[in-house]
Specification:
heterotrimer; A alpha+beta (210); B mainly alpha (72); C alpha/beta (975); A: 210 residues; alpha+beta; Alpha-Beta Plaits; 2 domains; 24% helix; disordered C terminus; C: 975 residues; alpha/beta; N-terminal domain of TfIIb; Rossmann fold; Dimethylsulfoxide Reductase, domain 2; 4 domains; 37 helices
Chain lengths: 210, 72, 975
């Protein structure tokens, strides 16, 4: 087993927010706390609109973990970044450090007792006994311990959002890219590889003035 | 019944103020997590500590995200 | 900049949004009790901790105390999402009677485990925090709780009084049924209204796809999606025109995006650059309401370049020559550009792409149907596909995406004003057929109506009930006005002309709302009394079948028992039938069940009702889908192929998933269902077919039957042939293949009325022939106002020149769905008044992915409501700047009706200059004011906002009374 990862295929994401409500549903996440959200770039701009689903990316060298003043984070053997809410002081320093805006700070209720940080757990709970009352209340369900993958990805409407062992996800994604028979013209390629997208292949939809 | 409740409440208060009290400082060791130790996801009734079985289950589960496994 | 979603919850990371505070407030008030009662019933708690999270801290202890860890009995119930017609399967985990989790059903060939926001949030139906919890009655302007007994007695007495009043009669009650009823309930409601003595019933299909159903059925036979979401994986090009599938049918995009990866091109034609358009290879922006110029503009290039399928047209299409003539002379590139704004080079590019990448499919939804010329627009789409030979072909087809989860089923067998179940119509023969199926005496049934004339006269429609209430009784084609309205699972804010609707609601003697939620109907009118709210449960609290858009029928298991005091819809129908004195006739031959013991009413068994549907609905092949067969399919989903829908091996071997109708003959005949309609490459016993012979055998000396050699695979008749009846069977010498028993029943009958199913068996199984005959599709539907589809400008338009060039229809008198309908007089008046200069923006409306229909149900679900907290109007930067409007500010959208609605401005290039868009799922505000106080306490939806239909205008389709929602006009000013 390599590391657990998320990947969102922007060619498939249609911004339906299924991942968002799947997460809310599975963990009974309260109003105002969004462990996952869908971001749309170039909203409404013909030919340029793209959506992508974002949550904690479970970084291998997690900046939240690096800056935490009480060292409440830990990385599991499978590469999932979790934290101990009993230690968390709710300072929000991880929020500064995170490049994705993943940490959430609930106002009230069991999730946010005294304003502790809450975030995506990759459906792996926290440092309590798996799927006990204690774990579910503080962290939500532990699907990994049930042999299931995160609810957001499992329920994704177009299978844009994938979750699981990074190696397996590569296989799934690679197959799609090969089927598409293209890649260089896809969104994000230029940013990632510093080369201009092969725009000739991209059928740029034309905007009609009316 | 009422008496019992009051007794419980009082003892709870005592507990908190005395032996239940936690140290108020955290000893931070750089690079080391202070979190409670967590069970492995396969250390439970379902997988009975069998890591290989757990990994196989997840591997099979991941295929559900790939519709090319069912259609071409 | 305000982007599409109300993700201004950024601030909410530290400060909960107002609505969350409101919610907490309500938790402190009465609502907490329900939550806690709920927790207690659950007795366990997976999930319970989370409920605690939304309670004020003081309640946490109590909530936790209600939990007993791990002691529950866990059951898995397989159900189907109720939010759209895709039909996504869901496994509901139920512990001690409480719905605690939901799991994806990867086995489902339809959705492969996938869900949109609504499907992934479906478990909220197990909470129902904002539901209507008990019967209520409006007393002195305030809703008060009453007992079921009192409510049923009072409502029953009032309805009976209207029915028995000589000056009113049974037609003075209008019943609005629901496309969210399951097939059995929808069917039972049609039967119920018939026994009440009226055809005055309708449901959402009227304002959804009525124009499609009429237009498509009249073109080639059946009014339904020809192929399936799954089959789109076989397409090489898909043209979406008037469909925003990414928001309205998100899981259908799973199949489309998969197809794109395997080489399918995707074209999206829409006035808005939608989420669907964002995935397209080619996006074409057209002026709202100009689908015919666009489609015929494509055809112009197709004919000009000889890309049409000449053999197919010769063999299987009637009237294409006339269409070609029209298209070549009238729809030149210049005329097309003038009408819809698309330049010649793009028209050519799109036409070439679509014509050369075959099989190619067309997708349309409300963008085409909801127009005064909707019936013509959908036929233009059909004609395009017929010209290219794309109908009856896997990967081709007219993929018409239906709306609600069971809108197809409710259209097929439910409460329609012009037909009994199965499109039998309402003539004497149809009534006699169904009387025989129901085991009732035809004469008794006739006696229930005011007269035989009324019995055979189509009722009014859900789009026009307001006129049936308000119009001068002398102009109405029934005894007198409608005096009572029953909304049985219906959101009135999805109909146009809100201001007039409110007046109609205030004028009727009685309003009855039977629904899991109070709906906008409870809060809209300013009434003091005469409104009753009766709590019905959702489809998760009962069992039954639902027909997805692709005609597959799926069986839902009951997940939980009806929450609060709610009852199932069929239990309520049965209870009313008892009150009205026809319970025995309504339920003759049914079994009865009490799934919840004495806690809930006794109800007719759902399976019994389905068996009755099976026994009578031969026309569209709802006869083969017995409850047993459907349940077997639900259990063995994994054996079906997601691309063909066919089971390869296993207990359902050779059958198509959900036995997509037509599934002809009796269940014993084992027809496998029809995955793609009119497909001659397959044997009829493998779901193959051809176009229907339903319009005579010749017209003006030209044969309407298919040419020789064009027939379904393996048919003994290799020429065109008329539909099957006893005479034909005898002539062919196949009569003696019937059993003696069958002969007795079949004598004098046709395939639709032979209750033995024997004639169908012999014709299909023994001879491979299609019972509805083998004919040509009609490119010209001569019985419609425009036989050849004509572009006509809307009644309310912004372009006066084009309105004069493409004028609307003449006004219609009262014989048309019982009310008079205006066209030309409205358009002419608008032109004379210069309305277009006062209201220079086109207003169109549509869906958001988080909400469904009128939206009360989804806006009551916190997981969804959080994502869209306000209604908004999309307006182009140019139009906004011209009006001094800035993004995220409140604006007034002003309608020519005098109405104005207050919504947030979303300044966006998604709409072009001159076009504006407002989603239609909102209600709970009325012209700038939150009407929270008019809802029953604790049952208002979390998100309330202005309904776009408060500001929409008059205009109806000239065949079906579809409302015009997609092209009207407005002006927008800063609030």
């Amino acid at each position: 087993m390599a590391r657990m990862k998320f990947i969102c295929d922007a060619e498939r994401c249609i911004e339906c927010n299924g991942c968002v409500t799947a997460c809310k549903n599975e963990h009974d996440v309260p109003w105002g706390v969004n462990r996952r959200r869908v971001v749309t770039l170039n909203d409404g701009i013909v030919g340029a609109e793209r959506s992508i689903s974002v949550a904690c990316m479970h970084c291998s060298d997690a900046p939240c973990k690096a800056v935490c003043p009480v060292n409440c984070f830990y990385t599991t053997d499978d590469g999932v970044v979790l934290h101990d809410k009993d230690l968390c002081i709710g300072c929000g320093y991880c929020f500064y450090a995170c490049p994705f805006g993943a940490p959430q700070f609930p106002q009230a209720g069991a999730f946010g007792l005294r304003g502790k940080m809450d975030k995506c757990t990759f459906c792996a709970g926290g440092p309590e006994k798996d799927n006990t009352k204690g774990e579910i209340e503080k962290y939500g369900r532990n699907r990994l311990a049930e042999g299931k993958l995160p609810a957001c990805a499992e329920m994704c409407s177009t299978k844009a959002l994938l979750a699981g062992d990074g190696d397996v996800l590569s296989d799934i994604y690679r197959e799609r890219v090969m089927r598409r028979g293209r890649g260089g013209d896809l969104w994000g390629h230029a940013t990632a590889y510093g080369v201009k997208a092969a725009t000739s292949q991209q059928p740029a939809p034309t905007q009609q003035k009316s | 019944m009422l008496k019992a409740k009051i007794f419980c409440a009082i003892s709870a208060v005592l507990l908190v103020s005395a032996c239940g009290e936690k140290p108020q400082t955290v000893s931070v060791k750089p690079g080391q997590s202070a979190a409670k130790p967590d069970d492995k996801p396969y250390q439970n009734d379902q997988f009975k500590g069998n890591k290989v079985e757990w990994e196989k289950t997840l591997r099979a589960r991941a295929d559900n995200q790939n519709e090319y496994k069912r259609v071409n | 900049m305000l982007v599409r979603k109300s993700h201004d919850t950024d601030g909410a990371r530290f400060d909960a949004p107002k609505s969350a505070l409101r919610r907490l407030g309500s938790a402190i008030g009465g609502a907490t009790l329900d939550r806690r009662a709920f927790l207690k019933r659950s007795g366990l708690g997976v999930g319970a901790g989370a409920f605690a999270s939304s309670l004020p801290l003081g309640f946490v202890g109590t909530a936790q105390a209600a939990k007993s860890e791990g002691g529950g009995k866990e059951e898995v119930k397989r159900t189907v999402c109720t939010h759209c017609s895709v039909g996504c399967a869901i496994d509901a985990i139920v512990e001690n009677g409480v719905w605690t989790r939901q799991e994806p059903v990867f086995d489902s060939p339809i959705n492969l485990g996938a869900h949109c926001a609504k499907g992934a949030a479906i478990r909220e139906h197990g909470h129902g925090e904002h539901r209507l919890k008990y019967p209520m009655k409006l007393v002195n302007g305030k809703y008060v709780r009453v007992s079921w007994e009192q409510a049923m007695n009072e409502v029953g007495d009032k309805l009976l009084a209207i029915r028995n009043d000589k000056a009113a009669g049974p037609d003075s009650v209008f019943w609005v049924g629901s496309s969210k009823h399951n097939n059995e309930q929808a069917y039972l409601l049609r039967k119920f209204v018939s026994m009440f003595g009226s055809n005055n019933c309708d449901h959402q299909a009227r304002i959804c796809h009525s124009t499609t159903v009429a237009g498509v059925a009249n073109t080639w036979g059946y009014g339904a999606m020809t192929n399936s979401y799954n089959d789109m994986q076989n397409s090489k090009c898909a043209l979406y025109i008037g469909s925003n599938a990414a928001e309205a049918h998100p899981v259908s995009m799973l199949h489309m995006l998969h197809a794109k990866e395997t080489g399918c091109k995707m074209i999206v034609v829409d006035p808005r650059y939608t989420r669907t358009a964002a995935k397209a290879d080619e996006y074409v922006r057209i002026r709202s309401g100009t689908d015919i110029p666009f489609l015929f503009g494509m055809l112009h290039h197709i004919f000009k370049n000889g890309w049409e399928d000449k053999k197919y047209i010769n063999d299987r299409v009637y009237g294409m020559d006339k269409i070609k003539e029209e298209v070549m002379t009238k729809w030149t590139p210049a005329a097309v550009e003038e009408a819809c704004g698309v330049k010649e080079d793009q028209m050519y590019k799109v036409a070439k792409m679509f014509a050369e990448s075959k099989p190619s499919t067309i997708v349309w939804c409300m963008g085409q149907t909801q127009h005064t010329i909707g019936n013509a627009m959908v036929r233009a789409s059909c004609i395009l596909q017929l010209a290219l030979g794309n109908i009856g072909v896997s990967g081709g087809g007219a993929n018409i995406f239906r709306g609600h989860d069971n809108v197809q089923g409710a259209t097929d067998v439910g409460p329609n004003p012009d037909s009994l179940p199965g499109y039998y119509g309402i003539n004497t023969g149809a009534w006699k057929h169904w009387a025989a199926v129901w085991g009732t005496d035809y004469e008794w049934l006739k006696g229930r109506f005011q007269s035989q004339t009324m019995m055979e006269k189509p009722g009014t429609t859900v789009s026009r009930w307001i006129d049936a209430v308000m119009d001068d009784p002398n102009t109405i084609d029934q005894e007198t006005n409608v005096k009572a309205i029953v909304f049985w699972g219906h959101a009135p804010n999805s109909q146009t002309r809100g201001v007039e609707m409110k007046k109609a609601m205030e004028k009727v003697d009685l309003m009855v709302i039977i629904d899991p939620y109070p709906t906008a109907a409870a809060a809209m009118p300013d009434r003091k009394e005469g409104v009753y709210l009766l709590p019905a449960c959702t489809q998760f609290e009962t069992s039954g079948s639902a027909t997805a858009s692709n005609r597959s029928i799926q069986w839902r298991e009951r997940v939980i028992s009806p929450l609060f005091e709610s009852q199932t819809d069929h239990a309520i129908m049965y209870a009313f039938a008892k009150k009205f004195g026809f319970a025995e006739q309504l339920t003759k031959g049914y079994k009865f069940v009490k799934p919840d013991g004495d806690r809930k009413w006794e109800e007719p068994e759902v399976e019994s009702i389905l068996r009755e549907i099976n026994r009578g609905t031969f026309t569209i092949g709802y006869s083969g889908q017995s409850p047993e067969r459907l349940k077997l399919h639900m259990k063995h989903m994994h054996t079906f192929d997601p691309k063909t829908l066919k089971a390869n091996g296993g207990p359902c071997n050779g059958e198509y998933f959900g036995l997509p109708w037509p599934c002809y003959g009796t269940p014993e005949m084992k027809h496998p269902g029809s995955p793609n309609l009119y497909d001659t490459s397959k044997h009829v016993m493998d779901g193959g077919g051809n176009f229907r012979a339903n319009f005579g055998v010749e017209r003006e000396g030209v044969s309407l039957l298919a040419e020789d050699g064009s027939h379904s695979k393996g048919a003994d008749l290799t020429t065109g042939y008329p539909e099957l009846d006893h005479v034909l069977l005898k002539k062919l010498g196949w009569w003696d293949e019937l059993t003696e028993e069958e002969k007795k029943k079949a004598e004098g009958k046709n395939w639709k009325t032979d209750l033995s199913g024997g004639m169908i068996r012999v014709f299909m199984k023994n001879h491979g022939c299609h019972p509805f005959g083998n004919a040509k599709a009609r490119a010209i539907v001569w019985n419609f106002p425009d036989g050849i589809p004509q572009h006509r400008e809307p009644l309310y338009g912004t372009n006066a020149d084009l309105m004069k060039k493409y004028p609307t229809h003449a006004d219609k008198g009262g014989a048309f769905w019982r009310v008079k309908t205006l066209y030309k007089s409205v358009q002419d008046k608008n032109l004379a008044d210069g309305v277009a200069t006062k209201f220079p923006l086109i207003l169109t409306s549509g869906r958001l992915v988080e909400y469904e229909g009128g939206g009360e149900e989804t806006r009551s679900n916190p997981w969804l409501a959080e994502l869209q907290q306000e209604n908004f109007v999309e307006i182009n930067e140019k139009d906004a700047n011209d009006r001094g409007i800035r993004n995220n500010e409140y604006v007034w959208v002003k309608s020519p009706t005098g109405a104005q609605i207050k919504v947030k401005a979303m300044v966006t290039p998604r709409v072009g200059p001159g076009t504006t868009f407002i989603p239609f799922h909102f209600s709970g505000w009325w012209q700038g004011k939150d009407i929270l106080e008019k809802y029953p306490d604790g049952a208002a939806p979390i998100v309330r906002a202005e309904a776009v239909n408060t500001a929409t205008t008059y205009g109806y389709d000239s065949v079906t009374m579809m409302q015009e929602t997609k092209t009207t006009i407005c002006e927008i000013v800063r609030a």
